[in-house]
Amino acid sequence: MFEAISFYLFSFLVIASFWVAVTTSQALYALTALAAGMILISGFYFTLGADFLGAIQIIVYSGAVLALYAFGMMFFDTTREVKEKKPNKAIVTTLAVLAAVLTVAIVAAPIVSQNIVALYPSVESVGNTQQIGVVLFTKYLVPFEVAAVMLLVAMIAGIVLAGKKMDISLTKLSESEIEKQNAEELV
Amino acid sequence: MEIGLNHYLVLATILFGIGLYGVMRRKNLLMLFFATEILLNSVNIGFAAISHYYADLTGQMFAFFVIAIAASEVAVGLGLLIVWYKRHNSIDLDEMSVMRG
Fold it and tell me: By CB neighbour count within 10 A (0-12 exposed, 13-18 middle, 19+ buried), where does A93 fall?
């Protein structure tokens, strides 16, 4: 009963806020609606017993990703209205719905066959976070390390791309040129 | 009424549809990034639901890796967007289609 109430409440709120995020013409409204939707999605995770995933959702999405977007938006002119494409609305909506149904059908197709066996079955007596830790650091250790390297590469790429004066490579300049650069900065 | 796996899959479908609609409709590249975040989140809901109803942790594992990929996509994408904006003073997708360098 309560599960149904929470499911329908959260679904309505998430769908509404994401709809606002994709349709509004104000960039700030879109960002705020997206943040609200991200936090509300973690409600589903807590209902589904994936506590750790819910906490990660709040920390990574609402904390890191949306803060990054908020900082990124300082570079752009967000006060002016966002111009939109004017394609045929019916075609866009039909294509979106068809593609979504097709994707879920492909993902859910093995379920119909009813012979799914749990690879890493969850244990009732152990907490979700502990189970995640055990499976992540035994069966998924290599993907975990690869993801760590990927995040490091992304971090360096972000710093290099967005940082100031990063188009000048200090390693390729001679000493006198670097001193000239520094002198120009001081002026 | 009992909430089953199909409820969550239908919800994931609806959110995926909203995200795709946003991807096809938006001309501003920042808004396009928002729509891709919605796409990734809808898939995560599906993973978590399947993980719960089949008592299998694999779904949650994949959701974690999807979150990691989303985070690095944002870092690199936003950096490229800032570089583009510094050069061209606009992040319109239609102007990007002309590759003049």
Answer: middle
